[in-house]
Write a structure and sequence with these properties.
3-stranded antiparallel β-sheet, about 10% strand
């Protein structure tokens, strides 16, 4: 079929085509802006993901360092606890040692330490076994220890003066 197009009809078709082209350009501009915004969002999100991954890696490294520090600290704590337990055992033994030493005496020969003994009788017997006169253990004279051949003193008399037990 042949169609005859009038001048008015052709002008109307051209105007419709021009409007369609203008509408297509506007839609393309809007699409371009949306695409550019989408790309900016994608780039921004990608940068955020990369920064988060770097932060997570740094946090993992910090956590590994902290784990090592914690392990060392736990080992030091175990060592300190063992030391405390050992010292507590020593402290518990001190009263027994003090009780055992309460009667301990020192045998002096001209003021110099000769030996330690649990009792005065044991010190006298030892001194007699190495030549001291039997029965010569009367009250101590006022002479200095260095001028007496054999003298028995309590171990406590040798405590250093001024060293009080501090609490």
């Amino acid at each position: 079929m042949i169609r005859i197009v009038t001048h008015a009809r052709l002008a109307a078709l051209e105007q419709g085509a021009s409007q369609a082209h203008e509408r297509a350009r506007q839609v393309q501009k809007t699409a371009d802006r949306a695409y550019a915004g989408h790309l900016r969002t994608v780039y921004g999100l990608t940068a955020d993901v990369e920064a988060a991954e770097r932060a997570a890696e740094a946090a993992r490294a910090d956590a590994a360092i902290l784990r090592e520090i914690l392990e060392r600290t736990e080992a030091e704590l175990a060592e300190a606890r063992a030391t405390v337990a050992e010292q507590a055992a020593r402290i518990d033994a001190l009263p027994r040692d003090l009780d055992a030493m309460a009667g301990t005496v020192v045998l002096l020969h001209y003021g110099k330490l000769h030996s330690l003994h649990r009792t005065t009788l044991a010190a006298e017997q030892h001194a007699q076994s190495i030549g001291a006169v039997a029965g010569g253990w009367g009250p101590a004279s006022n002479l200095p220890d260095a001028e007496v051949s054999w003298r028995i003193r309590s171990l406590g008399s040798f405590a250093v003066p001024g060293e009080e037990e501090s609490g």
